[in-house]
Design a protein that fits this description.
The chain has four helices and six strands. The protein is an alpha+beta fold. The protein is extended and about 65 Å long.
Amino acid sequence: LGVNGIDFAKKVMKCRLASFGDAYALAKDLEIDWRDKAKHSCDPRFETKQRLIADWFQSTKAHPSDSQAMMAFSNKDVQELNGMARDLKRGAGELGKGEYIYTIERNAGEELGRPQTVREERRFSVGDQIVFTKIDKGLGVNNGTLGRVTELSKSNIKVAIEKNGVSQEISFSP
């Protein structure tokens, strides 16, 4: 059921589908028969994420000493990309076998002038890369500081960070 998206868009732009009959006529013109209940689905965002993850993973292999990052539009996209990245890294043996699940709180913006906090469960393993999202003078990190998890327990996370070109380890409670 492949439909040429460009041809489809051109034909839709030329006519205004005012009724079911118009839509049916367009489908008939494109030789798409929806009466047989056939479904054609395409999720370009998922396909784009898969390609992004594959390119990112290949880049981490080709340039292991470089810092690698992915950008996403929404928090949901970030979570999906992180899960896909962790699956690849775990499959390549780059993450520890153990996994801890922590409940974190994050700022979700404001609603009607009031700050909104969201509680979420996050999975961590030794070898995970994390990004600090706010300044914490006690830990010596800024918003955007990258770290690599070196040790985990129920009540403590140890992370290696680089500060002024010097590697150091910090620890904190989740």
